[in-house]
C-alpha cells in the first residue's frame, strides 16, 4: 500500500512539475520543418524576452498536427497546408488563421541535367522530365512535400505519374529521398531547408544541384491558427499573445534573421 | 562509416560536457522507465502468479490472450492510449497527454504482458513439492505467493530485465503519447528519431551509445544485487522469508 502511495504522489508531483516551473509555457502543434531546421529553437529566447512565454512544441506531419488541434491537445497551431487549413477553419476547428511566413520548394537534379530543365519554370521542367523519361524520386509518403509535388504535376496539366518505370516512390523522409536521387541520378522536389542541410553535409559535391527555383507555384505558405473557445482547457490568452508576436515587426524580423548554413530559409510575409 | 567513429566521439563529448539536453532526455527516459516498470511489476506479478498457479475455467484462453498481447505493436498501443488521453477522450480530464506519467501508462501496457507471461511460466515450472511443504508448515495464501516468487526469483529477474529492455528502448508510444517535447517528454529514443530526421546521423548514434551505457549501468546494478542475494540468501531465502 505504501509503495502505491509513493508512486501516486510521484505521479502527481510530475504532473504538476511542468506547470509550476518557471514561465508560462505554451504548446505549439507544428510540422517537422519548423523544428528540424532549428527555427523554433532560435525563436524560443526571443519569444521569452518579448512575451514572457516559454514556447514548447509537438512536431509532427501536417495531418497529425491538425488532428491534435481538432482534439484540443495543443494551445495553437503552426502549419503549412493552406487548403487543408481553410477546410479546418471552415469546419469550426480553428479560428483566426493568419499567414505569417513562407519558404519554398526547389527542383533539384543531377548536375548533368539530362532533361535540360535548368532555368525553366516548374511546369516546363516537369514536361521535359516526362518527355526525357528521366528518373524522378518522389517522397511517396503523403507528406506536405509529396502533396505539393502532386499539385505541381496537376498544375502543369499532366497526369499524375505512378507506375511509370522512371518514377520512384521512395516512401521515406526528404533526406533519404535526396540520397536516393543522388545515387540514381534522379530529379526530385525538396523544401529548401532540407536541401541546404543536405548540400552542406556533402560540401556541395553530392552530384545534385538546384535546377529550377523561384516559381510562384513553389511557394510554401505557413499560417498560425488559434483554436476555438470550445477547447475549454487550453491557454487562449497566451495563444493570442504568441500569434500577435509572430505577426509583429519584432517577430517578423526574428524570422528573417534566422539562417541555416549562412542562408536565409523563411521569408516573413504577415499582412501589414 | 564515419558515423560510428564520429558518433562515439560525440557520445563521450556529450557525457563529459554534462550536456543539459542529453541529460534531460536521460532523466525523462529514466522516469518513464521506472514508473512503467514499477506499475508493470505491481500489476503483473500477482496476475502472472494467479495465471500460473491457479487452475480456473478460461485459464488457457487467458494465457493465450496474454501471449497474444506480447505481439501488440507499440504504435497501436500509442494510438489507443492517445485516444483515451486526448482532451476529447474519456480520460481527457486527467490532463495526462504529452506528460511523463501519460507515457508511463502506455509503456506499462507494453511491459505488463511480458511480466504476466514470464511470471506465469516461472510459477508453472516451480517444483510442486514446494507448495505442499510450505502449506504443511502452516503458511497462508500470501506467504505461499511470496515463497513461490522467492523460488522463481531468477526467472522473475529475467522477466524484469526483458520488460526493462523493451520499455527503455521504445519509441512509438513515447513519440505518440509523449509528443517529444524538448525539456519535458523528449526521451533518448525520441531524440534519436528527431536527430535522424534532421540528418544528424552521428548525433543519433551518440545518443544510442548513451542509451546503451545507461542500460549497462542498470544491468550491472541488478547483477550486483543478484550476486549478493546469491551469496547471502541461498537456503535462507525461503526459510528466512517465512
Q: How would you sum up this structure, described in words?
A:
The complex is a heterodimer of chains A (272) and B (242). In chain A, the strands form two sheets. In chain A, strands 1, 2, 3, 4, 5, 6, 7, 8, 9 and 12 form a ten-stranded mixed beta sheet that branches. Chain A is globular, with a radius of gyration of 21 Å. By secondary structure, chain A is α/β, with parallel strands linked by helices. Chain A has two domains: 2-102 and 221-268, D-Maltodextrin-Binding Protein, domain 2 (3-Layer(aba) Sandwich); 104-218, D-Maltodextrin-Binding Protein, domain 2 (3-Layer(aba) Sandwich). Residues 16-20 of chain A have low confidence and may be disordered. In chain A, 44% of the residues lie in helices and 24% in strands. By secondary structure, chain B is mostly helical. Chain B has one domain (2-241): MetI-like fold (Orthogonal Bundle), CATH 1.10.3720.10. Helix content of chain B is 78%, strand content 0%. Chain B has twelve helices and no strands. Mean pLDDT of chain B is 87; it is low at 231-242. At the A-B interface, α1, α2, β2 and α9 of A face α2 and α5 of B.
Amino acid at each position: 500500500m505504501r509503495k502505491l502511495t509513493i508512486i501516486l504522489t510521484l505521479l502527481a508531483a510530475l504532473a504538476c512539475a511542468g506547470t509550476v516551473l518557471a514561465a508560462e509555457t505554451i504548446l505549439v502543434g507544428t510540422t517537422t520543418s519548423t523544428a528540424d531546421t532549428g527555427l523554433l529553437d532560435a525563436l524560443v529566447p526571443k519569444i521569452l524576452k518579448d512575451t514572457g512565454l516559454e514556447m514548447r512544441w509537438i512536431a509532427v506531419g501536417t495531418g497529425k498536427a491538425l488532428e491534435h488541434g481538432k482534439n484540443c491537445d495543443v494551445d495553437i497551431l503552426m502549419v503549412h497546408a493552406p487548403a487543408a487549413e481553410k477546410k479546418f477553419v471552415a469546419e469550426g476547428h480553428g479560428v483566426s488563421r493568419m499567414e505569417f511566413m513562407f519558404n519554398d520548394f526547389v527542383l533539384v537534379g543531377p548536375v548533368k541535367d539530362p532533361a535540360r530543365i535548368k532555368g525553366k519554370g516548374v511546369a516546363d521542367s516537369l514536361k521535359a522530365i516526362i518527355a526525357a523519361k528521366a528518373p524522378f524520386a518522389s517522397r511517396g509518403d503523403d507528406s506536405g512535400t509529396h502533396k505539393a509535388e502532386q499539385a505541381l504535376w496537376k498544375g502543369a496539366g499532366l497526369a499524375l505519374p505512378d507506375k511509370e518505370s522512371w518514377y520512384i516512390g521512395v516512401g521515406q523522409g526528404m533526406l533519404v529521398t535526396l540520397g536516393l536521387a543522388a545515387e540514381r541520378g534522379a530529379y526530385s522536389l525538396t523544401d529548401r531547408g532540407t536541401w541546404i542541410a543536405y548540400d552542406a553535409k556533402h560540401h556541395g559535391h553530392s552530384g545534385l544541384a538546384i535546377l529550377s527555383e523561384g516559381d510562384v507555384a513553389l511557394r510554401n505558405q505557413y499560417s498560425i491558427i488559434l483554436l476555438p473557445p470550445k477547447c475549454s482547457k487550453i491557454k487562449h490568452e497566451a495563444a493570442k499573445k504568441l500569434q500577435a508576436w509572430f505577426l509583429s515587426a519584432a517577430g517578423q524580423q526574428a524570422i528573417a534573421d534566422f539562417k541555416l548554413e549562412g542562408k536565409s530559409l523563411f521569408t516573413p510575409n504577415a499582412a501589414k | 562509416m564515419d558515423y560510428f567513429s564520429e558518433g562515439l566521439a560525440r557520445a563521450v563529448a556529450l557525457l563529459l560536457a554534462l550536456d543539459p539536453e542529453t541529460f534531460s532526455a536521460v532523466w525523462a527516459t529514466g522516469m518513464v522507465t521506472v514508473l512503467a516498470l514499477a506499475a508493470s511489476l505491481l500489476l503483473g506479478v500477482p496476475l502472472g502468479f494467479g495465471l500460473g498457479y491457479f487452475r480456473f475455467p478460461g485459464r488457457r484462453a487467458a494465457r493465450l490472450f496474454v501471449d497474444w498481447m506480447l505481439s501488440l505493436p507499440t504504435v497501436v498501443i500509442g494510438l489507443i492510449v492517445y485516444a483515451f488521453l486526448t482532451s476529447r477522450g474519456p480520460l481527457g480530464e486527467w490532463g495526462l497527454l504529452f506528460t511523463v506519467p501519460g507515457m508511463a501508462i502506455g509503456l506499462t501496457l507494453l511491459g505488463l504482458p511480458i511480466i504476466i507471461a514470464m511470471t506465469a511460466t516461472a510459477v508453472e515450472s516451480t517444483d510442486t513439492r514446494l507448495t505442499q511443504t510450505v502449506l504443511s508448515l502452516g503458511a497462508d495464501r500470501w506467504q505461499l505467493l511470496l515463497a513461490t516468487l522467492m523460488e522463481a526469483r531468477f526467472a522473475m529477474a529475467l522477466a524484469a530485465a526483458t520488460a526493462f529492455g523493451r520499455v527503455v528502448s521504445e519509441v512509438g508510444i513515447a513519440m505518440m503519447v509523449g509528443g517529444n517535447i524538448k525539456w519535458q517528454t523528449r526521451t533518448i529514443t525520441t531524440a534519436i528519431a528527431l536527430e535522424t530526421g534532421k540528418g544528424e546521423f552521428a548525433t543519433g548514434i551518440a545518443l544510442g551509445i548513451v542509451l546503451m551505457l545507461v542500460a549497462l549501468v542498470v544491468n550491472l546494478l541488478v547483477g550486483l544485487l543478484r550476486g549478493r542475494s546469491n551469496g547471502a540468501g541461498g537456503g535462507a531465502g525461503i526459510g528466512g522469508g517465512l
